[in-house]
Amino acid sequence: MRILVSGICGFVGSELALGLRRAGHEVCGFDNFSRPGSQLNQSRIEEAGIEFWRGDVREERDLEPARGIDWVIDAAANPSVLAGVDGKTSSKELLEHNLWGTVNLLELCKRENAGLILLSTSRVYSIGALCALPVAEENGAFVLRETSATAGPHGVTEEFSTAAPISLYGVSKLASEQIALEYGAAFGFPVWVDRCGVMAGAGQFGKPDQGIFSYWIHSWARRAPLKYIGFGGTGHQVRDCLHPEDLLALLLQQMAAGDRQASRIVNVGGGASSAMSLRQLSDWCAREFGPHDIAVDLSPRPFDLPWVVLDASRAEQEWQWKPRRTVDDICREIAQHAREHPEWLEVSRG
Ligand SMILES: NC(=O)c1ccc[n+]([C@@H]2O[C@H](COP(=O)([O-])OP(=O)(O)OC[C@H]3O[C@@H](n4cnc5c(N)ncnc54)[C@H](O)[C@@H]3O)[C@@H](O)[C@H]2O)c1
């Protein structure tokens, strides 16, 4: 198969592209290098025999080299939950990258009769409903106290509320999901929507608002300043994490599925067994690198959430998919990368 990956020099795009190439596929892709550090992946991509061109998903003419493709993996986005409101990118720009970019890829799929895999996000779920989940503290982490039809110890399901507000980033993805499914239905090409939880691994360009596992471990290794923000300065907020190689295993199945009937939208996350609070991540870092002082900032940050774990039971039932890498494997991989790349925080900051 010939597969186009947009945002191919990003953390997830590059890992998926290299994995697809290893699996024997012809891979091509483009990136506009808006993410600091992404340029470093160009040579890795090209050395693996992947066709690369510099391009912007907002520009239709930049998609023209993508001829004869069977699948598109949409991995080009501004993935920060603060995008559009942090003064670094405008709200309009965010929607142009994340929503209008997806529409351009859908037009490409229509022209090429190619399928689309949209890398969506747990950020499509309602901030109000997530903040209202009853949590208690246990072993330095928030845990869910009560189970409901859409949230339980395994995480939140695909039926969890998506009511606004969900952040501009979240809505750029939720709207992309709907438009992608409509294009697929109207023009008869397959669309799979994978709602990914926090992705993490070596080589991620971590920042405080995106790529938190990488940012935290690299900062700890360098003894760079870190702080617990909001939630009483406890660091009890919890996320599950997933390695892109585990995501790839699902994508390979979805692209080979033909006419198979399966849910078009699935949660794809590390789940409860890969969930960790910031406080627990600090404990992990202290064991790995020795002590480091963490500051406290009690003022809550917009869009911060106490507990987000994705229930990926549907992906497990329908695709027999389960992540193989544990949170410990992922942290170890990042720690090794941090030792080998002490400059990574500067690379990621741009
Ligand atoms: N990393 C996560 O935790 C996570 C979680 C859920 C979903 N996702 C989704 O996965 C995808 C990849 O995320 P990532 O973590 O690799 O982010 P990333 O920032 O590392 O990669 C995105 C890449 O897209 C490129 N890009 C951005 N706008 C572009 C444009 N207009 N034209 C061309 N290229 C453009 C960037 O330069 C970057 O290389 C995104 O769609 C993101 O929303 C990521």
What does this structure look like?
This protein has a 7-stranded parallel sheet, with helices on both faces. It is built from 11 helices and 17 strands. The radius of gyration is 19 Å and the shape is globular. It is of the alpha/beta class and 350 residues long. It has helices at residues 11-22, 41-47, 91-112, 127-131, 168-187, 212-222, 244-255, 278-289, 313-319, 327-340, 344-349; strands at residues 2-6, 26-31, 51-54, 71-74, 115-121, 135-138, 141-144, 151-152, 155-156, 191-196, 198-199, 227-229, 238-242, 265-268, 275-277, 295-297, 307-308. α1 crosses α7 (244-255). The mean pLDDT is 97. β8 and β9 form a beta hairpin. Nicotinamide-adenine-dinucleotide (NAD) binds at residues 7, 9-13, 31-35, 38, 56-58, 75-79, 97, 101, 119, 121, 196, 198-199, 205.
Short structural description:
The protein is an alpha/beta fold. The chain has helices at residues 11-22, 41-47, 91-112, 127-131, 168-187, 212-222, 244-255, 278-289, 313-319, 327-340, 344-349, and strands at residues 2-6, 26-31, 51-54, 71-74, 115-121, 135-138, 141-144, 151-152, 155-156, 191-196, 198-199, 227-229, 238-242, 265-268, 275-277, 295-297, 307-308. The protein is built from eleven helices and 17 strands.
Count the beta strands.
17
Helix count, per DSSP? 11
N-to-C series of helices and strands: EHEHEEHEHEEEEHEEHEEHEEHEEHHH
| Dominant shape | globular
- First-last Cα distance: 35 Å
Q: What is the strand content?
A: 15-25%
Helix-residue proportion? 25-40%
Oligomeric status:
single chain
Structural class: alpha/beta
Largest beta sheet: strand ordering: 3-2-1-4-5-10-14
Distinct compounds present: nicotinamide-adenine-dinucleotide
* Gyration radius from CA atoms, angstroms: 19 Å
